[in-house]
């Protein structure tokens, strides 16, 4: 509504505060976006996810592919493993395997000790039975008597923290989720970027040139649309083998079709705008019109579509991984983790819960941000 | 207005403000209005004066960031701050509104009968068949031909004038006490305008409701309203009886508005002046697919064999109603649409040149469009907009030189060059039109096609643009093809007139003769509708 705009109020040089620099539509949109709490919160959440995906695996306490055989499928807990009540039996079990008699086991903070005795000489190499376990390290035998038949076995307890628990192979779920976020985000962003470049270029050219060119270009899109996605991916996998790059190429290759149609539609309306006709009347060539007028003006809706495309790509990747066509073990993605979690849902709920929560939060944030962007870029709200 | 009568709508201290990114903007500053039963009141002002926002606030239709305070009483019912439900009992039934754009204010998905029946069923609780009967009655009342058949048409099957009649029928459905008409005739052709105004006057006489007429067009006010409120920047600066306001305006602003009619005329150029642009038997046809598989396609001729010769420093005014093909003619002359026939520029035949061949000539043949909001790319700064042509035609210019040309260009059209880094949406309509003119003039063209350059602007701004165009013509020896449906502006600008109808020339000649002694009936009707200043007489209707 023109009445609400102060600069439109009066004819003549209505110069407001600073005449030299104006505020572009993008800056306006940015200001509107900053007012939208949900969008700002989502942006912060996303930033946290990006930081977690990029730097998380570097600072995580465990490598994402390290296997802790002692801690297979342990539930999520903020308390460090091993638990106090499991130290004793584990210690005893390990020493039994060393064929020594164990006396009273005393646990003292981060070390555990017990008197040991044997009919024959105690082989000092039996400390390996303890060191081999994930729970203990630096085992030593002290206070040996002269006959080397009695002594005190002391070992330090290795405290391992698994805040999200471990999976069926004894790998830390937190580390795996961090690497999964990295992979999923990378695929989402790369696939969206690919469909952005392809779709905007193709759609703008097709819409602007129009006529027969448009017909042919759009029929090609229709043909590609009719290819079943999964079939297409399987074909790619058969030809090129499984590969990280292939996944985002596959997703990008199918998602740009939507983008091309959206951009073409935008272009068709823009083409009839008077500013495009004015550019033509100035003698600006086709490329100039596309570059200066069509593409910048389609970017608003395109940006919104991209924010909605990223979660779509992530979901598709999850689907592919779920079907076993995605990333390969021990590399993982949120989709792989969720599929594993689903298999273990009854016995180990945390395996499903945490990756699913991570994916859900990420998708929510992306969708909210997309909505916020759409509101911010919507000229009707001006 | 008798002193003891009670106003049907009393507005006291109405304030409207909008929360925007730049802080609150005051649109209306505590104004008072009184509407008596059965009277016609005009609220006049330029765009941005707050006249529409006042009515929107009363009707509870403000945009979501708007807030209204103060008081507006319909009979004794306070309307400001009333809940949606209770407000709906008044608006749409007792107070109704018709809008400027008959194209967009009807829902394209529903038949008009259903849209008119909506308020009947909703407010009056009528049954469907009773509502349908009443619809036909209403359509007959607003003078829509064949109402029994038209009731089942979709909005796109009706012309602009007919749609506006449907809107009026909708507004009348529940016998309103007040009809608010927000620029109801601005988007219509002059002859249709006159019919709609006549209809409104006639309806008012028969139904006795009050009409609040919001407009920027003083010509309409003078002929139509009993009382006038003049608004400027959210304040009522003057109010009084129409005759008193027009004969003896007290406020400078009112005086300025009354004087804003474009004036002056242009003497014809000498016969010896060289012909710059010549069109001979120009035809522009659009292929139409006929219904039915085997009937093939036919051709619709938007421009049907028109010839004209534009001499140096001449201004040819092309007038006609919407759909007459005048814009298409302008574009065909510049070869922006494909046409047949010959177009000569200077001594060259340009009608067979392709895009590449036309490019060097584009510099000399420029066009300015009607819509100052649509003709500037919203993502480019003003400086980029006006120097775009230089990128094509003088690619060797450095950035600094282009900037200098931008500064000169803006000065040339009377804008502050410091504004070249701002974006088009920060400018008013008139300023944008100046920018569009600067974009064309910066290339130093010889011929300019002006396609309704003033139609979307306020009268006072129109006058400024007309003066600017005149000055530029003098300074740069320009020749204009001036396309407009507004005869007052055409008269002020042109020395030769072409009257078009359905793609053909009805009449052409020197401006003075066309306006003073129109020969053809169509031209007479046009001139009569545009220049008439007598009050609208109801007796003339039906």
Automatic annotation (TrEMBL), chain A:
Membrane topology: Multi-pass membrane protein
InterPro entries found in the cross-reference section: BP-dependent_transpt_permease (IPR050366), MetI-like (IPR000515), MetI-like_sf (IPR035906), OppC_N (IPR025966)
Primary localization class, coarse: membrane
Domain of life, source organism: Bacteria
Gene Ontology biological-process entries: peptide transport; protein transport; transmembrane transport
TM spans (from-to): 38-60, 183-205, 225-251, 302-327, 347-370
CDD domains cross-referenced by the UniProt entry: TM_PBP2
Protein name: Oligopeptide transport system permease protein OppC
UniProtKB/TrEMBL annotation, chain B:
Domain of life: Bacteria
Primary location: membrane
GO cellular component: plasma membrane
Membrane topology according to the record: Peripheral membrane protein
Gene3D superfamilies membership: P-loop containing nucleotide triphosphate hydrolases
GO molecular function: ATP binding; ATP hydrolysis activity
Location of this chain's protein in the cell: Cell inner membrane
GO biological process: peptide transport; transmembrane transport
Domain ABC transporter: residue ranges: 11-258, 286-527
Family the UniProt entry places it in: Belongs to the ABC transporter superfamily.
Protein known as: ABC transporter ATP-binding protein
